[in-house]
Amino acid sequence: MLDFSLVVQYIPFLLQATVITLEVSVLATALGLVLGLIAALMKISKIQPLVWIADFYIWVIRGTPVLVQLFLVYFGLPQLGIQIGPFSSALIALGVNAGAYIAEIYRGGILSVPKGQREAAQSLGMNYFLIMRRIILPQAFRVSIPALGNQAIMMLKDSSLASLVTVSELMMVSQRFAATNFAFIEFYITASVIYLILTTVFTFILNKIEGRLSISDH
């Protein structure tokens, strides 16, 4: 028989772990947004070495499992004398992984902006950085919102991998209590419900943002 009363006394600990899950997800997504923008700008650059570097980064990261990348950061870097804690390792690995995917999202958004707008801005004497900041990137970001939202939701779920490097996030804490109480179904179902609630809230917020942006277009 399933006994969810076992879970009730551990709810405060699960909620604390949920906060850590959100911290990993939000910070890793933020890092991915920054890295993705840099990689996207490098990829569309006319400077060939920058294009090669961006292509190599995207190729390697998208072509290897995120779990391998996480283990390389957490277990591999100390072998080179670089000591990084579990939280930072998870943040770096997940952020770098997300950046490769976000770079392609940004690139698609940037290329979707009509060339005529850039040419018009150039005719007005605007330089490359001003054109990007005021004309290209705002439109590219708006177009990319749905894909970036999906990436943020994926990050929320991928944050569970941080448990494999001893980060006390939701999955790690759920595993610990499940093993202690021999109540695996109860704790894993509870963790699933919490993840479902978080992803539903994220989706609701992203849909609101997308709706407001679409209204502003009109």
From TrEMBL:
Statement: the UniProt record of this protein carries the keyword Electron transport: no
Keywords: Amino-acid transport, Cell membrane, Membrane, Transmembrane, Transmembrane helix, Transport
The ABC transmembrane type-1 domain, residue ranges: 18-206
A GO cellular component annotation in the UniProt record: ATP-binding cassette (ABC) transporter complex
Transmembrane regions listed in the UniProt entry: 20-44, 56-77, 83-103, 185-206
GO biological process assignments: amino acid transport
Protein name: High affinity arginine ABC transporter (Permease)
Annotated source species: Kyrpidia spormannii
Gene: artQ
